[in-house]
Design goal:
YlqD, alpha+beta, 3 helices, TFIIE beta domain-containing protein, coiled coil, 2 domains, about 55% helix
């Protein structure tokens, strides 16, 4: 390394891709199914908690319930419905992802995630090519590093 050349240490985004294998598909499908099951449990808990809160308010209020009590019950129902809607959207996204994974072909490359990495740059380097680096994994093992490391 020539000490007389100025250098900079920069940070770049590194794209990580995976090669679709039977093992990878199975692992991703299991993760997605676990997410779906957890979302279902959260939906059940939410229903139960909402019903308990409403029952508690009704138990403590006058009969017939006054406008303030009805407003409290309505607020709880709105909150429960909002959270339910969020959870159902999460579940729907997980189901769509699960379906997409099932249709992926073996040995196909798919983007998995991004991470940051550092690199040195000095006069004369092509900054654009140094920024375009990606890692390809097969079952968690680095198979290839592409770009100007």
């Amino acid at each position: 390394m020539d000490v007389s050349k100025p250098q900079l240490l920069l940070k770049r985004v590194v794209n990580v891709k995976v090669i679709v294998t039977p093992l990878w598909k199975e692992e991703v499908q299991q993760q997605l199914q676990t997410q779906i099951n957890q979302t279902d449990q959260q939906l059940q808990q939410l229903d139960t908690q909402g019903q308990r809160a409403i029952a508690e308010i009704q138990k403590q209020s006058l009969q017939p319930p006054g406008p303030q009590t009805l407003q409290q019950i309505e607020n709880i129902q709105v909150q429960v419905n909002q959270k339910k809607s969020e959870l159902l959207e999460q579940k729907n996204q997980s189901l769509q992802n699960l379906q997409q994974v099932q249709f992926l072909e073996l040995d196909q490359e798919v983007p998995q995630f991004q991470m940051e990495g550092f690199f040195r740059v000095e006069p004369g380097d092509n900054l654009i090519s140094k920024m375009q680096v990606e890692i390809v994994l097969r079952d968690g093992v680095v198979e290839e590093i592409r770009g100007d490391v």
